[in-house]
Amino acid sequence: MNNRAANSSATTETAVVEIEIATRRLMAALDALESAVERRRDADRDENELATRIQALGADRSRLADELDGALVKARKLERANRDISDRLDAAIVTIRSVLDTGEDS
């Protein structure tokens, strides 16, 4: 019986050691899982922030495109007005020279 008790005690100690090892491995795996979940949560948060920034940039781009279109329309109107004024000034200069030349001939 003594041999059985010693053998049983050794088996119990072995089982306890194996349980402790398994527990440590389980705890390490849970820690690794928790870290992975945290990293994923951070990545998702960063991805959401990036999506928000991209959306804001898209809105800014649309607004700037509208402003650019308005500025181009205004620039074209100013160019037409400039050409019209230039043509009128050229005609006025021709008229003034004509009047001056006529006055000198008299």
What does the secondary structure layout of this molecule look like, with pairings?
Elements: H1 2-105
Order of helices and strands: H
Overall strand count: 0
- Mean pLDDT value: 92
pLDDT below 50 for ≥5 consecutive residues: which ranges?
Answer: none
Indicate the overall shape.
rod-shaped
Alpha plus pi helix count: 1
Summarize the amount of helix as a percent range.
over 70%
Question: What structural category arises from helix and sheet content?
Answer: mainly alpha
Q: Quote the distance from N terminus to C terminus.
A: 154 Å
Question: What would you say this structure looks like, in words?
Answer:
By secondary structure, the protein is an all-alpha fold. It is 98% helix and 0% strand. The protein contains 1 helix and no strands. It has one helix at residues 2-105. It starts with a helix and ends with a helix.
Jot down its keywords:
106 residues, 1 helix, single chain
Short description:
Helices cover 98% and strands 0% of the residues. It has 106 residues and is an all-alpha fold. The model has no long low-confidence stretch (mean pLDDT 92).
